[in-house]
Amino acid sequence: QQIDVRALYETSALAGHPLAMRELGRILRRSAATTTEVAESTQWFASAADQGDVPAMVDLAQALVFGIGIEPSREQAQQWLARAAEAGDETAQMLTNSMALRPQVTQ
């Protein structure tokens, strides 16, 4: 008997569980075939981040930096990374320092 992990995460995410929201976003991101699906994955990261899920804050920040499923915003990305770094996330601390050293490219 196979277990549909995506369906389990989706049920939990819809019930408001941040970890499930983040993991559903990651599953959707890996399997996305359209820009709509990519945007849906990013929305799950945003929902989880809004509820305080630190790894989702990092995922959302990376989406914001590169415009993956969301309008790019370096400023918002830095804000999410700062929150994650304050919570002790080492990846966020490294990325925050890296972004601070790089000048913003304008077009």
Mind explaining what this structure looks like?
- There is one protein chain.
- 35% of the residues are buried.
- By secondary structure, the protein is an all-alpha fold.
- The radius of gyration is 14 Å and the shape is globular.
- The mean pLDDT is 92.
- It has helices at 5-14, 18-31, 35-50, 54-66, 74-86, 90-101.
- It starts with a helix and ends in a 6-residue tail after the last helix.
- It has 6 helices and no strands.
Biggest β-sheet: count, sense, barrel?
none
Percent of residues in helices:
over 70%
Low-confidence stretches: none
Question: Radius of gyration in whole Å, from Cα?
Answer: 14 Å
Order of helices and strands: HHHHHH
Strand content: under 5%
Feature tags:
107 residues; mainly alpha
Strand-helix topology:
Layout: H1 5-14, H2 18-31, H3 35-50, H4 54-66, H5 74-86, H6 90-101
Helix pairs in contact: 1-2, 2-3, 3-4, 4-5, 5-6
What's the quick description here?
It is built from six helices and no strands. It has 107 residues and is mainly α.
